[in-house]
Amino acid sequence: SQQGEEDPQALSIQEGENATMNCSYKTSINNLQWYRQNSGRGLVHLILIRSNEREKHSGRLRVTLDTSKKSSSLLITASRAADTASYFCATDAAGAGSYQLTFGKGTKLSVIP
Amino acid sequence: DGGITQSPKYLFRKEGQNVTLSCEQNLNHDAMYWYRQDPGQGLRLIYYSQIVNDFQKGDIAEGYSVSREKKESFPLTVTSAQKNPTAFYLCASSIREGWSNQPQHFGDGTRLSIL
Questions:
Q1: B41 CA to chain A: closest CA distance, Å?
Q2: Considering only CB atoms, which chain B residues are within 8 Å of A36?
Q3: For chain A, how far is it from start to end, CA to CA, in angstroms?
Q4: CB neighbours (10 Å) of residue B19?
Q5: What is the DSSP code (8-state) at residue A83?
Q6: What are the residue ranges in chain A where pLDDT is below 70?
Q7: How confident is the model over A36-68, as pLDDT tens digits?
């Protein structure tokens, strides 16, 4: 099955800096979603971007999608210590209708106060 | 508050034993999912259900079984046939709308270990 791959695997930044994470996938998609997971907890949905959208914003989050390159990026601006978590992208295969999401292995973000 | 409740938070299994993980949601979602997460890894789909009394195998269904007798409940049984069950198990739910996937809401997981 197709899989999103996040890059980098780990990222450490100072509070107040911006954090950028990338996701690449293999086949055509209906949409791409980003999730956050705090240590030992479930995932929390952050943002969904459809295949016909190129950019989407939500608060300090900015997501871009380039379907020609099969890639997406998540930008967190003005990071806070509370943003420390793992971030996952998830994709669904276009036209599949199977309601399955395929998750990548995640980027572990550490924001140092 | 609406949400997904998984229980127990921690579970220990003896050799040859079946164990059942509970997942209950009060979000009125049609679709429910079970994932397995190993350390440093992403989520792998075990089973999913789009509607009551119907479910499909995911990528790693061997050694697991599920039922969907009620909309609110989607229990997962880890059978003795699953030889490496130690993992973090996550349950999720979502609405069904059109052909594309909608955001999934997750419980806080059950951590299963072998005694």
A1: 5
A2: none
A3: 39
A4: 18
A5: G
A6: 1-3, 94-99
A7: 999 999 999 999 999 999 999 999 999 999 999
